[in-house]
Specification:
CATH architecture of the largest domain: 3-Layer(aba) Sandwich
Helix content: 25-40%
CATH topology of the largest domain: Rossmann fold
CATH class of the largest domain: Alpha Beta
Order of helices and strands: EEEHEEHEHHHHEHEHEEHH
Number of helices: 10
Bound molecules: adenosine-5'-diphosphate, magnesium ion
Number of domains: 2
CATH superfamily of the largest domain: P-loop containing nucleotide triphosphate hydrolases
Strand content: 15-25%
Amino acid sequence: MPLLTVTALSKRFGGLNAVEAVDMHVDEGELVALIGPNGAGKTTLFNLLTGVTAPTSGSVTLTVDGKPVSLLNRAPYQVAKLGLARTFQNIRLFARLTVRENIQAAMTHRYHENFLATVLRLPAYYKKEALVGGWTDALLEAFDLTAVADLAAANLPYGTQRRVEIARAVATQPKLIFLDEPAAGMNPEETAALTALIQRLRSEFHLTVVLIEHDMSLVMKLAERIYVLEHGKVIAHGTPTEIQQNQAVITAYLGGGVHA
Ligand SMILES: Nc1ncnc2c1ncn2[C@@H]1O[C@H](COP(=O)(O)OP(=O)(O)O)[C@@H](O)[C@H]1O
Ligand SMILES: [Mg+2]
């Protein structure tokens, strides 16, 4: 059974079919890319998969301990608890909080504080605090953020903010991470560093990755399988080589030279 199974998933906004009858699956440990022109429905699909938006019809199923669990009708925090994390196309960090605080804020759903224990400062509180602190330090180190840990997120360069956002998603200890255009607005050095970082999400953190990205060199380098979306529909899927040779994709997307 795949880790994630999407069946006949659709989302209408008024008269617009933003996502239409999408079938898709993601196996454990895979890196799957989702590409397509602006407005194709990529972000909407991520929103449907992470509980941000409710679909018009269709199903989304996650395999948990060998059993299918529906992700529909669950709030984002419930989806997060089941092991899904994401970053946003427009960076969403707490601008005035430090890098460390941004990462810790993401862990609250994993380490629910018992209110009384917190107030009374019982041993359980200290244990959790030590856990959160230790895991935060490990993440800061892993994402090369230790030197900026105590700086406000808003004051960091763009590429670093992206790294903080990914670290924050990883902080929730997900199985599956969704990255929405992580290389957008990055310079070539930042993109190269990001490519290495995404590889490490798999090798070191053992995450399954679904990536929306317009940077074709990054997609072709990283993805094992690619789904191509146009006007809400999957018009092609396959290996990077298959996609690069697919006439419908070349016509709709790659050939235009807009983003490739
Ligand atoms: N909340 C919304 N209400 C109405 N239309 C929306 C909403 N979100 C997205 N859309 C529309 O759905 C289509 C797909 O958008 P989106 O998923 O953001 O595309 P992509 O991420 O591929 O660029 C676009 O035409 C967009 O304008
Ligand atoms: Mg988008």
